[in-house]
Amino acid sequence: MDKKIVFRADLMHMASAFDEAIAELTLPAMPYELRDAVVRAHLDDGEPMYIDLTDYTEFPFLEPYLEEANDLYALNALAEKLAALEPWQVDALEGLILMEAEKQEPFGLPRIYDLAASAGECQVLYDVRSDEELGRFYVDNGFVPETEELPEALYELLDYRKIGERMRTGEGGVFLRCSSGYVTQVGDLKEEFEELELMPWEPDYSVLLEIAVPDTDLELLISLPSRKE
User: Fold this and answer.
1) What is the rounded distance in angstroms from the CA atom of residue 209 to the CA atom of residue 106?
2) Which terminus of the chain has a smaller tally of CB atoms within 10 A, N or C?
3) How far is CA 75 from CA 31, 113, 165, in A?
């Protein structure tokens, strides 16, 4: 089964960022893939590295906040978290990123990881793309008590744009840019990044062989050389 690609990256030594020792890598990656990329980039453990994210796939809204990211293992952990998101959670994450940006305080990979972990704590309204549509949604669904007793003939006299603007401002919601819809946070944000073990485990094999059955999800990983018990 093909793995989901979140980022494509070029990895190189910080001191020689323009030489030929560039390792192309897709994230998330297996531990052996990370180690192989480090070797191909002529990097020793702990040496500074430069990571150029060349493709953000379905997460282009993250580009302004990851341009300075240079921790390969933290990036891989983020890619693993992003790869597990459902499509609506990707849109929810974009909304959380926009909310965070409105605070006008710098943030980077650790915060993005926690926001990705919190994507399920949001609501996404895909048919709402403006304050006017938001106002109509809230009025039509009974979320504006002041309008409940109005005669039906008066509803079209309401200023739905102002109602929507008031509701959006009050709940801190945002309209999406890369996708289309309206996002609000309905639950508490999680803090998981600080608890991560970022360094990969040491592989106990020289070669990892993947055997898969075409057109199925069946696959088998075999470590070589095999260990005799």
Assistant:
1) 43
2) C
3) 13, 9, 37
Burial degree of 108 (CB within 10 A; 0-12, 13-18, 19+): middle
Sheet of 174-175: strand order equals 122-125, 182-185, 174-175
Residues 6+ apart with CB under 8 A from 33: 25
Q: What is the pTM of this model?
A: 0.82
**How far apart are alpha carbons 185 and 127 in whole angstroms?**
17
Q: Which of 203, 199, 198 is nearest to 32 (CA)?
A: 203
Per-residue pLDDT of the chain (229 residues; tens, 9 = 90+): 467 999 999 998 877 655 667 899 999 998 889 988 988 888 876 678 899 999 999 999 999 999 989 899 999 999 999 999 999 999 999 999 999 999 999 999 999 999 999 999 999 999 899 999 999 999 999 888 888 778 777 878 899 999 999 999 999 999 999 989 999 999 999 999 999 988 765 666 666 677 877 777 777 777 767 665 5
